[in-house]
Amino acid sequence: MADQPRIYSIKELNRYIRMKMESDTLLGDIWLRGEISNFTHHSSGHMYFTLKDSDSRIKSIMFASHNQRLPFIPKEGTKVIARGNITVYERDGNYQFYVNSMQPDGIGSLYLAFEQLKSKLSNEGLFAESRKLAIPLFPKAIGVITSPTGAAVRDIIITLQRRYPLIPIYVYPVLVQGTGAAPAIVKAIEAMNRFGEADVLIVGRGGGSLEELWAFNEESVARSISNSQIPIISAVGHETDFTIADFVADLRAATPTAAAELAVPSISELKQQLNRQQQRLVQGIRYRVSDEKEKLQRIRRSPFFLHPRRYLLEQAERLDRLSEQLVQRTKRITERSHIRLARQQATLSAHHPGERVAFAAKRWQTATKQLESAMNNSVKDRKNKLYTSMKQLDALSPLKVMSRGYSLVYDEQEQRLIKSIRDVKVGDIVKVKVADGQLDCHVGSLRGDQMDGSNESK
After folding, report:
1. Contacts of 348 (CB under 8 A, 6+ apart)
2. What residue segments make up the domains of the chain, in order of their start?
3. Which residue, among 251, 213, 25, 226, has the nearest Cα to 121 in the 3D structure?
4. Neighbours of 144 (CB within 10 A)
5. CATH number of 10-106
6. Exposed (0-12), middle (13-18) or buried (19+): which is 321, by Cβ within 10 Å?
7. Which end of the chain has a smaller Cβ tally under 10 Å, C or N?
8. What is the tens place of the pLDDT at every residue in 116-151?
9. Strand, helix or coil for residue 103
10. How far apart are CA 434 and CA 398, in angstroms?
11. CATH of 138-265, one of 3.40.50.10550, 3.40.50.300, 1.10.1740.10, 1.10.150.120
């Protein structure tokens, strides 16, 4: 049985097409030229319109987050150049152009080239503030790269001489428009870097159209400005728009005259600052002199200068008091030292080896007497206890009892004491111990104290 083909839903198909289109590099970032029709600016801020030319059309949308930055207001019939991406709207299955930026058509390929180069250099980091060099406050020499015949060079020189007349100015003449302008500007920047005479470079020209200013939008010029070891001020006389050179330069000036003003300080302003500083210095010195004079007058009026002898007598009297205090304090210290020495000598004598031996001998004699007395008392006490115990033992001794007529009866082996007639039988041999000896007896008969005649044995 053949394999069944997979059946897709419309949603799956539209999603597949959308993913394919979004992964396409051309459709992901594309520029289109066309005329706006069916334009609607929705209350949400989004713009919906159709972009068309003489042969075809495409539905387009520009979200509010993007159209807020538009430099113009789109209208029905406006010819524009738009940049964005193309993808599929899954619900309807229609592909649409999502616009990110838009400009009125009229500058054509130059504007496209400008935007593409701007994006490229920005991604490389050539516009980053961290790469920009600081303009020195007091440069030693200024380099000017511009046309030698235009008004820009005259404005720059006049402004520099007016603001800072002592500074040398090195003008490097170049073409500022046309096919050879960009290589000439690059060569001039590299040459000024090799010479190393200038602290700041002013690169620019007067105003003009986009085509006339295009040399300052060339990639070679931008990279030359970025590689310069000397700070560069861009001076392209186009106040409203920027060139690529403006983005790369260390500082941007709106006009050549403004560039000259940014490059050097104003000598008149410096003089005014110096005058203000001089006035502050003079006022400070006058105040200091006045203050020191007042201090001197106070010192002259001091009693130490008016009556020096009195001051010396007071000091002499104070010296006498201090001398007496010193003598008294010395005596007290000496007396305390003698007392402390006597105590230490007594302590030392008490710890003398001879004294310690004599003291130990006395303690030994006393201990010996105490030991002898304790031993005698202990012996006497033990003798008394022994005598008492002996008297008690003698009173309890069987021999003592036997001396009064009693005796002890043992079996024949003398291992068992006979206490009852039940312990023997007729015919047994018993031993009878009396006070002065022992009797060997033969049991002839047995008679108990409570036995009747029937219990008597022979």
Report:
1. none
2. 10-106, 138-265, 302-366, 402-447
3. 226
4. 28
5. 2.40.50.140
6. exposed
7. N
8. 788 889 999 999 999 999 999 999 999 999 999 888
9. strand
10. 10
11. 3.40.50.10550
